[in-house]
Amino acid sequence: MRSINPAIKFVSLLAMTFFLAYRFDPVLNFAVFFLSLVILIASGVGIKRLCLFMIPVLIVAAGMFFTGYRFSAGHSMPVTADAFLVSDSRWWNGLAQAGRVLAYGGLGFVFALTTDRLFLIRSFKDQFHLPQIFVYGLLAAWGIVPHMMQEYKRTRAAFRARGLSVLPVSPALLKPLLIKSVRWSEELAIAMESKGFSGHEKRTDYAPVKVRIRDFFFLAACVALMVAAAFLR
Question: Coil, strand, or helix at residue 85?
């Protein structure tokens, strides 16, 4: 999954997301969720890291289950899902709502945890023709983020050295960080302009991102899964 073109991956997973939005089927939602977990583990995502990311998704899914169970349109129509019988439509409605959250979360993690951010920006530029000014801005922003994290830790350590306890989101911590971020942005913009970086001139790429056969196979596999789900369910 990490070698798939991010632009093709984005289109494929977005299409699956819209497909699930028009399907009220908890079996399909849970199948997509478990398939996403298999893909994530096969792509090398650590189980511990994956579990930490899944905690808020599971909490939201539990909340949606109880919401769907409590506020159901009907209560007497039995619903059969393959081998088991759900004797109350409230259970079916709750499972459908919870499964949709899990399916969306799984697809989102497949994209976020298996995609390199720089590779993503480059693919958007080559496949979606993203303007260069946005490409330079995004690349510069990703370069500033590590400095922001270091500055945040230094400021927090300075408060501790003076015996002051502040909250992680205290204005006393965020205000210096915001001021320095603006200063870094201005310095970076001046440096890029002085080196000839402009969003209006055409440039060649040293290593352009291309769409390969494996990317078309991934897109075709996603389309095939959606067609199979539409006919089988």
Answer: strand
